[in-house]
Specification:
Belongs to the cytochrome b561 family. It is a multi-pass membrane protein. This is Cytochrome B. It holds the Pfam family Ni_hydr_CYTB. This protein is 67% helix and 0% strand. With 176 residues, the protein is mainly alpha-helical. It has a single domain, classed as Up-down Bundle (Fumarate Reductase Cytochrome B subunit). Bound molecules: protoporphyrin IX containing FE (HEM) (2 copies). One protoporphyrin IX containing FE binds next to helix 1, helix 4, helix 5 and helix 6.
Amino acid sequence: MTIKDNNQRYGKVSRILHWGLALLILWQFLSAAARFFFEDTSIEAFFWPTHKPVGFLILVLMVLRLVWALLNVKRRPESVNLLAKLGHASMYLLLIAVPVVALFRQYGAGRSFEPFGIPVFSGFEGEKIRWMIDLGSDFHSTLGWILLALVVGHIMMAFWRQKSDKTSVIPRMWGK
Ligand code: HEM
Ligand code: HEM
């Protein structure tokens, strides 16, 4: 297994990023679902406090993943079709846009942000920045749920290709 990608399969770095982020994103949707379905219960109390810090970690790792993808763009396996290409690109876009609009809302509301105790920005007193709050409130959860639909579609397509007589793409991302 090589560090970099090649045109047959993804390399070590892409795989670690893919599967590591898949786990973090799964956790992120568990916390979102806990808030949506189990407000004011011990389930929400357990999952929800991790939502902002883990969301921020996902953003940082996605920026690294984007840089890595661009560095490897000529080497990686070719997308099986246009739908796969657009689907992958949309997941990148949303995995960056969804946390970014939440951070705008956090900042615009004058609230400080210290994920894992790291000071990212401090809060302020006085008038709130309306457009930043609206950006987050209008788009964060809607785009978040759209992202979940894309992820579910992505996983189903991977298994469907495996089951049908199409060439499987799973060995590109998993196994030798
Ligand atoms: C990739 C990262 C993220 C994903 C996929 C995500 C997803 C979601 C989803 C689906 C909801 C809707 C829950 C509901 O309908 O009740 C939500 C709510 C929320 N998220 Fe995130 N989130 C992410 C990152 C963040 C970050 C970084 C912050 C804070 C800086 C944040 C703050 C919030 C807040 C305050 C809510 C509740 C208000 C609302 O529904 O908009 N999220 N998130
Ligand atoms: C939160 C969960 C997931 C996200 C956000 C995600 C996202 C992506 C993205 C963006 C790619 C393009 C390559 C890259 O830049 O890394 C990719 C490739 C791939 N993913 Fe996922 N993935 C997730 C989970 C899964 C799961 C559970 C499977 C299991 C079947 C899977 C199977 C694959 C395969 C086989 C490829 C290579 C596809 C190809 O080259 O055409 N993914 N994934």
